[in-house]
Amino acid sequence: SDHQLEYPNAPNEMDWTKHYPAHVDSQTGEFTGKVEIADIGCGFGGLLVDLAPEFPDKLILGMEIRVQVTQYVEDRIIALRQQHLAENKYQNISVLRGNAMKFLPNFFYKSQLSKIFFCFPDPHFKQRKHKARIVTNTLLSEYAYVLREGGVVYTITDVLDLHEWMVEHLDGHPLFERLSTEWENQDACVRIMRDSTEEGKKVARNKGSKYVACYRRIANPEL
Ligand code: SAM
């Protein structure tokens, strides 16, 4: 349950300084960065760790609901920063414990993000549990709000039924447009997303299939 979770009232009340201490002005103590990439349900953080060197100038955030898992990722990032202190690496990734299905617009401004990842989300197989899925019409509107025009939603799963569900909902949403297989094949993040998450590695070990779908956030229709 998430009743003890803390949320900022609005994005300007969110204190990112402890998440990205290398991006704090030493004079004023103010946060100088901006989170641009979000990994929703980041699990053990494999994607964050592999995205970090790919986007050294961008701040990347994992959101994870499980306490121990979040703690694990936090420790993992601190250790990586220590190991790479001289090169100042891994200062651009962090993790936050939270329920991404709630209050996302409390953390992020409109159009703040350029990429949102949903890697191997929980499938919630039973019909009556479908409303618990991380991609629903209502939530897609929130994701569209925090994503900038031209930004991308990345999805990957080994569960065909969930893949079809996500495609159906994203196809049906007026603010998203599916990207082609050719686009997927040339995109560095798709490659990283296929191979770097802990769940993705497990699926590969079990020789399972991985279904990818990526969508571009298109412009709001003229009123
Ligand atoms: N993305 C990771 C990977 O590919 O290895 C983890 C996949 S795991 C099957 C799904 C993760 O989503 C779990 O770690 C779970 O705790 C987290 N999760 C589920 N619902 C969530 C929510 N509403 N907000 C944040 N995280 C959530």
UniProtKB/TrEMBL annotation:
<keyword id="KW-0949">S-adenosyl-L-methionine</keyword>
<dbReference type="GO" id="GO:0000049">
    <property type="term" value="F:tRNA binding"/>
</dbReference>
<feature type="active site">
    <location>
        <position position="122"/>
    </location>
</feature>
<keyword id="KW-0489">Methyltransferase</keyword>
<keyword id="KW-0820">tRNA-binding</keyword>
<feature type="binding site">
    <location>
        <position position="119"/>
    </location>
    <ligand>
        <name>S-adenosyl-L-methionine</name>
    </ligand>
</feature>
<feature type="binding site">
    <location>
        <begin position="99"/>
        <end position="100"/>
    </location>
    <ligand>
        <name>S-adenosyl-L-methionine</name>
    </ligand>
</feature>
<dbReference type="GO" id="GO:0106143">
    <property type="term" value="C:tRNA (m7G46) methyltransferase complex"/>
</dbReference>
<keyword id="KW-0808">Transferase</keyword>
<comment type="subunit">
    <text>Forms a complex with TRM82.</text>
</comment>
<keyword id="KW-0694">RNA-binding</keyword>
<feature type="binding site">
    <location>
        <begin position="64"/>
        <end position="65"/>
    </location>
    <ligand>
        <name>S-adenosyl-L-methionine</name>
    </ligand>
</feature>
<comment type="similarity">
    <text>Belongs to the class I-like SAM-binding methyltransferase superfamily. TrmB family.</text>
</comment>
<feature type="binding site">
    <location>
        <position position="41"/>
    </location>
    <ligand>
        <name>S-adenosyl-L-methionine</name>
    </ligand>
</feature>
<keyword id="KW-0539">Nucleus</keyword>
<comment type="pathway">
    <text>tRNA modification; N(7)-methylguanine-tRNA biosynthesis.</text>
</comment>
<dbReference type="GO" id="GO:0005634">
    <property type="term" value="C:nucleus"/>
</dbReference>
<feature type="binding site">
    <location>
        <begin position="197"/>
        <end position="199"/>
    </location>
    <ligand>
        <name>S-adenosyl-L-methionine</name>
    </ligand>
</feature>
<dbReference type="GO" id="GO:0008176">
    <property type="term" value="F:tRNA (guanine(46)-N7)-methyltransferase activity"/>
</dbReference>
<protein>
    <recommendedName>
        <fullName>tRNA (guanine-N(7)-)-methyltransferase</fullName>
        <ecNumber>2.1.1.33</ecNumber>
    </recommendedName>
</protein>
<keyword id="KW-0819">tRNA processing</keyword>
<comment type="function">
    <text>Catalyzes the formation of N(7)-methylguanine at position 46 (m7G46) in tRNA.</text>
</comment>
